[in-house]
Amino acid sequence: MLRAAATMLGLLLWITGSSPAVAADPPLLKTDQGDFIAKDFRFTSGETLPELRLHYTTLGQPVRDSKGRVTNAVLILHGTGGNGNQFLLPQFAGVLFAPGGLLDPTKYFIVLPDGIGHGKSSKPSDGLHARFPHYDYDDMVEAQYRMLTQGLKIDHLRLILGTSMGCMHSFVWGEAHPDFMDALMPLACLPIQVAGRNRLWRQMIMDGIKSDPAWMGGDYKEEPREALTIASDIQTIAGSAPLPMQKRLATRDDADADLDKIHQRDLKNLDANDLLYQVAASRNYDPSAKLGTIQAPMMWVNSADDFINPPELGIAERMVKNIPNAKFILIPASEQTRGHGTHTSAEFWKDHLEELLKESDRKQTP
After folding, report:
1. What is the pTM for the complete model shown?
2. Rounded to an integer, what distance in angstroms lies between the CA atom of residue 42 and that of residue 63?
3. Which tens digits make up the pLDDT trace of 100-132?
4. Which of 63, 107, 250, 278 is the most buried (most CB within 10 A)?
């Protein structure tokens, strides 16, 4: 678990472009690993896989009521390029999973899946390369639903909490399965079609990969270095936080040295096909028309220094009015926030999670 957390620390640095705010080390958490196999999985593209593997990590044990219904299950969903183990990092687990924490595993059954195309779940780099089915967010949520209901025998969720891509998945979940959860907490996203600057940086990464001759239509023998350098540069800017980055990289030499370290790390860890598919998966996302169908209480939190979801657009303030039982919170920018990556630093929004859990508890109590 600790080795996995260390690996995810490097990934988080890639996503945020800066060091995360770190809480105290979490206790040694007992985790279990598993794989759910969905047979003959049909994607929205019409493509199929005979066996789709969805890997997951769990903490705690499910509790069932007298009717056999699970009452304490929590689904936590990661962002683009991540996996479930990122939530074992101190700034998340040390705050929420600690004894007496809001999501103490002695009280909750916590499920941390690796989304399709991520972590240890089925992905292009397993062998199909660019012949892997072209999944989207609807496919990813459907696979999660089958993993829970068919694999883990969970028929209800106390909470869905999602960061970045997982935030967007939270909106898809709320519309596709409105009765399945008691509460929703999306962190760092907008419930609209991916357009404007958000689409541009994603398209730049995809174009950079496909235009590199070394990509070879996805059948490369060695990773296309130029493509991954472009991807690393764009992703660093997209995840950047100007105030802490200016403080940490106070001189030109500091900034240049940091960029060299980012390139070394990313070129060692990234796979071009996996990244291409991960970024492309957002292409059909647009829950805006059905927001009124979301029933569960929602606490939606963004941060003011988020390059990917800039608050000056005013989109969140408009869209939240269309969602019953929803509240939107904007975390002010500071030298402590981490831009888009603020979503994984629970210290900034744990009080809002506590409010959501209490509010949804009241709604469930007769």
Report:
1. 0.92
2. 32
3. 999 999 999 999 999 999 999 999 999 999 999
4. 278
